[in-house]
Specification:
The chain is an alpha+beta fold. It is built from 22 helices and 14 strands.
């Protein structure tokens, strides 16, 4: 309501002649597409002035990227088109509802008793919550509920259901919603020093919201209504949603139908008379999937007509019949089974990845959101990556922890006053804030899609993720530099239990006066954990490949950087005249 009032106030304060054109600009943001969209279309939505030079968009509003004064309209423009989200948006009337799951303890209990088929270290484990390899990831996901209790303005939202639920389930209604998502993600990175696993589901919800609407506009389907009902159900429960996009792919030089084994991509294997789909295939690198309640399955690449069977998007419960989960290894993960808290570096929190296998998994029609509309697969992927590449602001949260660890170990080593040490810590801060700044720029630059929800600035989202493929590695290198060689030669915690070794270790591993050997060990193990151990998966390797490897971002940057317009700017200033 405040945002609506603010908008009305901005219209009322504008000169009378400017009001119609500002309404027209708003209508341009929310109008349904008349043709298939690609990434260039998304760019034009983000920057309506960029399509045709100075004369392409003579009017606009501050949020449209145009600050030129609006001319007097000769005829009244059409009224803004109401979007599905406008019709659903909670008005603030009546009390705010409470979700089924509110606390971390309640959430953890929902993960028990599901009798999943999970293979961990060669053993079938149906109850995984308390398994020492898995528990840190469960606790890390639970932190997304704790932050909702601690800071509800940041980490919760009232959705269109009127229920206050996690912001991870919120359909972004404004650029400010995108900004709050980003701020929440950074804070959770600070709290956990790990991958808290919930971003993929949030980004899947927002990308599917707009794409189902666009499919319906072209084909007359009912996917968007189904998706609304699914999201409503999830908001009322405060459920954890996973996003399943990455297929095994097999031979990357071949498309889906050319593979020797069709199951290398999730596809519709059969159909039942009632419209139920039967899926086969696999999704890999599935972050936090065991800790979720359901997953949104999506195609992961551009498709052509002969690949229609692979153009499927749907919601699948984690305990659905026919699903098998094979748990992924992480560097140094067995330290969680050795009993030493110190040697784990970060014993409380960790990430989780698994391979998910679909063996004749049945999906009822009410949970199917794409079925054969292959031409929308690329649009869905590009929207998802715009959201998700911006979500890598979480690495800035982990970078905050790294900066703190680098500064602390410098204090403990007695080197913190050296000029080169100070300079390296400044460099860590500089690199880390570049990650955060580009993510926030993407969020602040968000624009409304035809379905009413807001899409981040596509170019800045890709620049953010491209920064993330590089900067955490340099931050890790600098932190290891400041830590010293003891980072990789420190004896095991068990050596302190030995009567001969303990006094010798306490004697020779001292640092700055007043600093205990135990505290020095703890910071060294945390750095090891984040740069070489379990949480290096989330901070380094995931930074490289998650949401697309570096070349994927460079392709988008090339398509959106508008070289021709920049050339024209340079030629105009240089006085160049070309025939």
């Amino acid at each position: 309501q405040t945002q609506q009032n603010s908008f009305r106030a901005s219209i009322d304060m504008a000169p009378a002649a400017a009001r119609p054109s500002r309404l027209a600009a708003l209508a341009g943001h929310v109008r349904a597409p008349s043709k298939e969209l690609d990434i260039e279309d998304l760019a034009r939505l983000a920057w309506p002035d960029a399509a045709g030079g100075e004369s392409a968009s003579p009017s606009g509003c501050g949020s449209c990227g145009s600050l030129r004064p609006a001319p007097v309209a000769s005829t009244p423009p059409p009224a803004a088109v109401a979007t599905p989200l406008d019709a659903l948006r909670w008005t603030g009337d009546g009390p705010v509802g409470e979700p089924e799951i509110k606390t971390a303890e309640q959430y953890i209990e929902t993960l028990r008793g599901r009798n999943l088929r999970v293979v961990i270290l060669g053993e079938m484990v149906s109850e995984f919550v308390d398994h020492p390899l898995v528990w840190p990831s469960v606790n890390c996901m639970a932190e997304t509920f704790r932050i909702g209790v601690d800071d509800p303005d940041l980490a919760t939202a009232v959705g269109f259901t009127g229920v206050r639920m996690s912001r991870f389930l919120h359909v972004a209604e404004s650029a400010q919603d995108l900004v709050k998502q980003s701020m929440m993600q950074r804070e959770l990175g600070r709290r956990t020093g790990s991958c808290f696993q919930r971003c993929v589901g949030m980004d899947a919800i927002n990308s599917m919201w707009g794409t189902t609407y666009d499919i319906d506009k072209k084909h007359g389907t009912k996917y968007h209504q189904r998706f609304q009902q699914y999201v409503s159900m999830c908001q009322k429960k405060n459920a954890v949603i996973g996003g399943a996009m990455t297929d095994p792919k097999g031979d990357r030089s071949l498309n889906c139908v050319q593979q020797e084994d069709p199951d290398l991509f999730v596809h519709v294997h059969a159909r039942k008379p009632d419209g139920t789909l039967v899926l086969r295939g696999s999704k890999i690198h599935q972050t936090g999937v065991l800790n979720s309640h359901s997953m949104i399955v999506m195609p992961g690449q551009r498709l052509v007509e002969e690949e229609k069977a692979y153009a499927v998007a749907c919601a699948v419960p984690i305990d659905a019949k026919g699903l098998t989960y094979i748990y992924g290894r992480q560097s140094c993960d067995l330290r969680a089974m050795e009993g030493s808290e110190i040697d784990q570096g970060n014993a409380k929190y960790g990430g989780q990845e698994a391979i998910v296998v679909f063996e004749d998994v049945e999906v009822p029609p009410e949970f199917v959101f794409m079925d054969g509309e292959y031409e929308f697969a690329q649009l869905l992927v590009e929207r998802f990556t715009a959201y998700h590449r911006r979500s890598y602001i979480c690495k800035a949260g982990l970078g905050d922890v790294m900066l703190g660890a680098a500064a602390t170990i410098s204090d403990y080593n007695g080197t913190s006053k050296a000029s080169h040490v100070k300079d390296k810590i400044i460099e860590i801060a500089y690199l880390n804030e570049n990650i955060a700044g580009t993510a926030l720029a993407a969020s602040y630059g968000g624009k409304a899609m035809p379905a009413g929800n807001f899409l981040p600035d596509v170019l800045m989202a890709n620049i953010c993720k491209h920064n993330v493929t590089k900067f955490p590695y340099e931050i890790a290198r600098l932190t290891q530099d400041l830590a010293g060689g003891l980072l990789v030669t420190l004896p095991a915690d068990k050596e302190w239990e030995n009567d001969i070794a303990r006094p010798l270790l306490e004697k020779f591993l001292v640092g700055k006066k007043g600093v205990t050997v135990e505290n020095r060990r703890r910071i060294l193990r945390l750095i090891e954990n984040m740069t070489m151990g379990r949480n290096a998966v989330g901070y380094l390797s995931e930074s490289m490949h998650g949401a697309g490897s570096p070349q994927a971002q460079r392709v988008i940057i090339q398509r959106l950087m508008d070289v021709d317009k920049k050339k024209d700017l340079a030629k105009r200033l240089a006085g160049v005249t070309e025939k």
